[in-house]
Design goal:
Largest sheet: 3 strands, antiparallel
Bound molecules: fe (ii) ion
Number of helices: 14
Radius of gyration: 26 Å
Number of domains: 2
CATH superfamily of the largest domain: Iron/manganese superoxide dismutase, C-terminal domain
Shape: elongated
Oligomer: single chain
Helix content: 55-70%
Distance between the termini: 70 Å
Length: 365
């Protein structure tokens, strides 16, 4: 029984601390992490909880092994490193401060090395059980350092880049959101986009999102907010309907029946960041056709003006990541099913014939 408790207590303590750390981490992984410039070596998010679970188990077993032999000499050091480990999660993920995170994790590296050295003199098994932890920490130290070096301000703030829709969306009488008029006739985009598609997509789907948004925000603090602020701050149904309203208005506003050549400034930037306009179109199309399920693909600019392509599932809007939207395509099935049935690739191909490049260029600011 005593031997069982020797293992059980440290393992449970470790896993409890790990569970709490994962809880703190999960919010940042969803909101803050995507806004950071991260190392190309960063593993997929799913790897982190799996790796930490295994490592915490081994860390608990290491002390458990020593305790089972009646050796309590490393309990204090073990607890100290676990505390510093937890503090790294707090400083890096909760406070979102890569500098304090790096200082903490460097201290942790020293403590864990010290534990391994001291443990080795008492039990090689206890020391070896800490080695995967040490290797993972070295990797985490590198990732933390990379984020610090490449994101001097700790990453972009949500909605740091001002981007608003050109139309005033609110009705001045009761301050409810309205559906703005299209800048072209309903049949003007045919054959790329038929009147019937617009009657449903613009006339019914967008209308539903706007009605839902008005209903959901009535009597809430969101009622007096700009729609961009709602997108940045809300979650759940309010976010979904605000973002779908914004995305659709932005999308319809980017289309034109009388396309002109790409302005020189935009063409230069596309060449700079994608190699050529054709390569940009090919990459964007690939993401649009390949996006699983419903969503939006965006051309965005970061705060330094660098252009990139972002694929967002469902109602995803890059404003939340502090990116400036320049161009988008709606790849929800309702956007193309009437004209193209299930042939999303054909829809995306036609889409390039009705993009208003002047509008895209004007959004560069
Ligand atoms: Fe849509």
């Amino acid at each position: 029984m005593k031997k069982f408790l020797s293992y059980f207590v440290p393992v449970v303590v470790c896993l409890a601390v790990g569970g709490l750390a994962s809880y703190i981490q999960s919010g940042s992984i969803q909101e803050w992490y995507p806004t950071l410039e991260r190392s190309p070596l960063t593993p997929p998010n799913i790897v982190f909880p799996i790796a930490w679970s295994v490592i915490y188990l081994l860390v608990g077993l290491s002390l458990g092994y020593l305790l089972s032999r009646g050796d309590r000499s490393l309990v204090a050091l073990w607890m100290l490193q676990l505390f510093v480990n937890f503090m790294w999660c707090v400083l890096f993920f909760a406070f979102r401060n890569p500098m304090l995170g790096l200082l903490d994790i460097l201290l942790l590296d020293v403590l864990v090395c010290a534990y391994i050295v001291y443990a080795y003199g008492r039990s090689r098994i206890a020391a070896w059980l800490f080695v995967p932890y040490m290797l993972w920490l070295m990797f985490a130290t590198y990732l933390n350092g990379y984020i610090l070096v490449h994101n001097g301000d700790g990453g972009r703030e949500r909605c740091a880049v001002a981007a608003t829709l050109s139309d005033n969306l609110k009705n001045n009488i009761d301050m409810t959101y309205t559906v703005p008029a299209l800048p072209y006739e309903m049949d003007a985009l045919s054959p790329a986009m038929s009147r019937e598609t617009l009657e449903y997509h613009y006339g019914k789907h967008l209308r539903t999102y706007v009605d839902n948004l008005n209903r959901l925000i009535e009597g809430t603090p969101y009622k007096d907010m700009e729609i961009e602020k709602i997108i940045c701050e809300a979650d759940g149904a309010v976010y979904n309907n605000a973002a779908q309203t914004w995305n659709h208005i932005f999308f319809f506003d980017t289309l034109t029946p009388s396309q002109k050549p790409i302005p020189a400034r935009l063409e230069e930037l596309l060449k700079r960041d994608f190699g050529s306009v054709d390569e940009f179109i090919a990459k964007f199309s690939e993401k649009a056709v390949g996006l699983f399920g419903s969503g939006w693909v965006w051309l965005v600019a970061d705060e330094g003006g660098k252009l990139s392509i972002v694929a967002e599932p469902n109602a995803g809007n890059p404003l939340r990541a502090g990116l400036r939207p320049l161009l988008t395509v709606d790849v929800w099935e309702h956007a193309y099913y009437i004209d193209y049935r299930n042939r999303r690739a054909d829809f995306v191909k036609s889409y390039w014939n009705i993009v208003d490049w002047d509008k895209v260029d004007s959004r560069l600011g």
